[in-house]
Amino acid sequence: MSAVAHDHDLSHDHEQEHHHKDTFISKYIFSYDHKMISKQYLITALVMGIIGIGMSLLFRIQLAWPEESFKVFQIFLGDKMAPGGVMKNDAYLALVTIHGTIMVFFVLTQGLSGTFSNLLIPLQIGARDMASGFMNMLSFWMFFLSSVIMISSLFVESGPASAGWTIYPPLSALPQAIPGSGMGMTLWLVSMAIFIASSAMGSLNYVVTVLNLRTKGMTMTRLPLTIWTFFITAVIGIVSFPVLLSAALLLIFDRSFGTSFFLSDIFISGEVLHNQGGSPVLFEHLFWFLGHPEVYIVILPAMGIVSEVMATNSRKPIFGYRAMITSILAIAFLSTIVWGHHMFVSGMNPFLGSVFTFTTLLIAIPSAVKAFNWITTLWKGNLQLNPAMLFSIGMVSTFISGGLTGIILGDSTLDINVHDTYFVIAHFHLVMGISALYGMFAGIYHWFPKMFGRMLNKNLGYIHFWVTAICAYGVFFPMHFIGMAGLPRRYYTNTNFPLFDDLQDVNVLITMFALIGAAFQLVFLWNFIYSIFYGQKATQNPWKSNTLEWTTPVEHIHGNWPGEIPEVHRWPYDYSKPGHELDYVPQTVPMKEGEEVLNH
Fold first, then answer.
1. Residue 350: count of CB within 10 angstroms of its CB
2. 3-state secondary structure at position 44
3. DSSP per residue over 289-308, as a string?
4. Percent of the chain with pLDDT over 90
5. What is the pLDDT of residues 169-186, one digit of tens each?
6. Which residues have C-beta within 8 Å of that of residue 39, sequence separation ≥ 6?
7. Helices 34-64 and 504-519, interaxial angle, to 10°?
8. For the segment 386-414, what is each residue's pLDDT rounded down to a tens digit?
């Protein structure tokens, strides 16, 4: 034992020595420290988020006032895509495609998993760092490279990819199909291939770290729910992302080497192409086999963050800890067998449709368990309504309201009526997009003191939450109604259809809410950037929380704890426990004799 302690001291001295020798490049750029890498992920995701939201504003303006001239189009899109300030249909398709890609993969996937898995896994399980610091650093820089390639596709001569974020063939498989099928589409595929490699490296690192590097006493049933969700998210990513990589590689073969995996009987301008025997439906199967687990890769980390923030700010143990873990595992399993509900109108066998309907409706059960457990955690709690808590409650609201419409879309007979209308957009933006963003904001407000050693301004946080909450519902709630009225998605103007003239006012209303909501994200950005440098200095445990990350010093050191790693004696949700003076009992406090163990 003494030899181990001696080795530990030596390694710690070496760490301290290494810490002092850090150059700017090794500390802030090619850093192995998981805390620095998490900041790199967060800041990259925020920049990508600004670009993605900016694109959505451009196409919302186009939908509200079609065929009108706007100076802003000319500034951002140039004369080729917006001659005289009037947006062309190619430009609209390109904006929709890149907006969807950026928000789903680059903001929500890595903004949540990359940021918070990196920050919290070593800190909350009691580890010095990730299992492989080098692989962790490499995974971020591959993500950064894929971001740069995706953005660079906006500047190629023929324009960026324009086949929708789902890039269905034949638009994505034939370079000559439309302007956006050329070089921009190739860059999209290269970017996604690098992104998937980055994601796989990150996920393997998270899984190994959780399984192998937990501190003494940190059993799996003493892990915070955040760690459970990051762990299961990484497992889903390892299982499903390679399938999208195979689809992307086969698509590259079809585009560049004359194969016919996804193409058959194609005519372009009267010319018969040689492709025979492929099927675009095969691509749909491969894409959605990732595409649906991807929804949970995005939403599960948000669920974990919300569970942690709610327990801390309700000053109550999380309700149904083991039921929460079981529901996470059930969601992970079911998420891989529901992909066909995206394909009810693809000509799929109706019997297969009924199977996918059954599995899709089944996944509502573990989702409902989580919703009820959050509501019960809030019930009769001593609620601390800080911005992180408000965003957590907002996430439960959008998850429930968005999830209810999923029951309609999960039923093959009902889905056919609203498929490819704005009803679908309303559903997945609420249940996945807004809910995940709320989880991300909750995490930023809650762990900002841990990341930067300073506090965010609470009053600006309140303004940010209330305006965002009102505008998010203002944008996506009316979309359900125009979707039920039949308004199709991905049309850059509906002026050719007199049937939809009456819906134009709703489109204007949605766009106004979108513009206001986006403008108030600048309040958050200002708060974020200003507080990094000038925010109020954070205390070691500002939220009086139980988990291990609040036992580390405010000043970051590579290795997290200056001395021994603390030992864990209890689960992380001992709030307001009878027999203790304070209303929180950190995981490092030993059990008293005869103390009741709540979580067993």
1. 10
2. helix
3. HHHHHHHHHHHHHHHHHHHH
4. 85
5. 999 999 988 889 999 999
6. 115, 451, 452
7. 150
8. 999 999 999 999 999 999 999 999 999 99
User: Helices in 262-363 by DSSP H: which ranges?
Assistant: 280-314, 321-335, 350-362
Q: How many CA atoms lie within 13 A of 147 on its CB side?
A: 27
Closest CA to 570 of 547, 553, 550: 547
Helix runs in 410-457, H state only: 412-418, 422-428, 435-452
Structure tokens, 237 = 């990513």
| 488 CA to centre of own chain | 26
Amino acid at 456: L
Per-residue pLDDT of 353-387, as tens digits, reads 999 999 999 999 999 999 999 999 999 999 999 99
CA angle 141, 127, 586 (to 5 degrees): 125
In the Cβ-directed half-sphere of 504, how many Cα atoms lie within 13 Å?
15
Q: Residue 267: enclosing H or E segment and its boundaries?
A: strand 267-268
CATH 1.20.210.10 residue ranges for the chain: 36-265+273-278
Q: Classify 454 as helix, strand or coil.
A: strand
pLDDT band at 597 (very low <50, low <70, confident <90, very high): low
Evaluate if residue 243 carries a pLDDT over 60: yes
Tell me the pLDDT band of 269, cut-offs 50, 70 and 90.
confident
In single-letter form, the type of residue at position 212 comes to: N
- Whole-number Cα distances in Å, 427 to 35, 284, 400, 417, 492: 34, 20, 11, 14, 20
Q: For all residues of the chain together, what is the average pLDDT?
A: 92
- R_g over Cα of the chain: 25
What's domain 36-265+273-278's architecture? Up-down Bundle (1.20)
How many whole angstroms separate alpha carbon 508 and alpha carbon 520? 19
Question: In sequence order, what DSSP letters do the residues of 201-224 get, joined into one string?
Answer: HHHHHHHHHHHH-PPTT--GGGS-
Q: Can you tell me the distance from the alpha carbon of 571 to that of 503, in angstroms, rounded to the nearest whole number?
A: 53
Task: With 0.90 as the threshold, say if the pTM is over it.
Answer: yes
